[in-house]
Amino acid sequence: MDRIFHKLAGVLALFFTLLSAPLAAQQDAQVPSGSEPYVYEVDALNPGLAAQGEPLELDTPQALLESFFAAAEAGEWERAATALDMSNLPPQEQATQAEDLAAMMYEIANRSIAVNWASLPDRPDAVDTAASNKDPMAGAQRRHITLASLELTRRSVPVSIARLQEPGGEPVWMFSRQTVGNLPALYERFGPTDFEVSLPTPLRQQAFWTLAWWEVIAIPLVMLLAFLAAILTYKAVGMAKKRNDDDNMIGRILRAVQVPVTLFALAGSFAIMRNFLFTFSGPVEDLLGPLQLTLIVIAIGAIIVTVVEAMLDFATDRNAHKIEQPENEESRDFYTQASAVRRLVIVLVMLAGIGIVLVQSNITQTLGFSLLAGAGAIGLVIAFAARKVLGDIMASLQIAFAKTARIGDAVYYEDQWCYVEKIGFTHLRLRTWDDRRVMAPVAEFVGSSFENWTKQDPAIIKRVPIFLDHRADIDALREKFDEFVAGDDEIIKKDEAKIEVIEHNAQGQVARACVWAKDPKIGWTMHCRLREFLIRSAMEMDAASGQEPAPAFMPRAREVQVDIPLNRDRD
């Protein structure tokens, strides 16, 4: 027993040794070794600036931003300018431009950047001690950190800080010289507009969070004006729609684009006022920017899709009866392939819209989606949500390209004779013979059996059963049937027409007439006429038979007479 415990203790000791090895290695990796700081070496730091009061705390990235914001909010612009690396400027110009550059930097950092203070290092070497050991930068010293990327007209400009050291001095963190060099262009794009500058000073003061008083007033006002523009657009399109019926293409298009155009007016008017009149602060801008872009992309994509849908539906509805004719095989193929191309266009527009939103906005950085995306959570959620939709899309494309059912085809689905009227993403629209619409789910339609009566040859055989008495003279009825076949122009393959007894039971016999029609629509009316003719002929021959037991054609209830002798004698 003692030997077993010793072995078990040895195994546990080995296990904990192996477990502690990577943890120790990770801990060692998080704390860099070496005495030399990791810096950009420069000849001098802003030699054109004179010392201004108490120096800023620039030993860590977090201290840099905190002290810079404090000095700027106190109006100490010359002191705040010591946080800028102005190496691109001659020393004689540094003093003259220091205040303006510091004010520009504060406006950009305060209005257009959402600083993630939790992830901003508070160590001189900027080592991220919370990073996973799978991160290639885990445990590494840094001398450059990008705070954000702002989009100018044709390029993306990073706003970054760098760790610098002049000979004989201590390493300090400052806004990089590249960022300082881009400040005029960034300020022109993201700084306050002329309208904001003209506002009274009290309205430009801080209200709460990062919002100024003018932003507290402007945001609901801008939204109200945008909704007003959307309502006016909706009514204008509605008035134009009333002047055009659905029988013309313009009316169909106006009816289809009314909601997307309204959405575009909402997002567009909001974008115009936001870009030309106001420039909101960082967190608000990070929320409104992606939202505005998403709405505009959705509106434009919806307009494209609905216009294509309306034009194809108009052409299909206008030529519906022509497409359903058996001889219009090429038309059915064309409209079915056009419907498939339409769905591909819709998918491409959706993918392009998603790509534009992801590329043109920093939504993955500003809303915290990067953490979820890194863990694959967004991909899993989207894949799960889109699984059914993608399956329906592939099923609808399968129908279109395999041509198992084309627009205008006559199909027999779930005991109903229908024409395929539209093949959508999720449903097929089927029109029954009595003009009802059956919405068949694409997945169920593909996964179940159905009859396509116009796939190869639209000619169809119609079967007409008729119930007769056992004594009916089938040969006499067959003569009447032959007369009908010979005189009916809608019956084809007349030599194959026949009437046969296919069943009998205690009540009578079943005779079935079989005739051919050139398509299902003609076959329906023809087989109704044939049934009426056979019933009428049987009744006429039944009435002319006179008396029993002459041949009877129509079924009769059988009567049984039983004679029961009465025993009158009693014991």
Automatic annotation (TrEMBL):
Signal peptide: 1-25
Cell compartments where the protein resides: Membrane
GO molecular function, one term: mechanosensitive monoatomic ion channel activity
Keyword Methyltransferase belongs to the record: no
Record-annotated membrane-spanning stretches: 211-232, 253-273, 293-312, 340-361, 367-386
Major site of localization recorded for this protein: membrane
Keyword Transmembrane helix appears in the UniProt entry: yes
Keywords, comma-separated and alphabetical: Membrane, Signal, Transmembrane, Transmembrane helix
InterPro entries: LSM_dom_sf, MscS_beta-dom_sf, MscS_channel_2nd
PANTHER family: INNER MEMBRANE PROTEIN, YNAI-RELATED MECHANOSENSITIVE ION CHANNEL
Protein's recorded name: Mechanosensitive ion channel
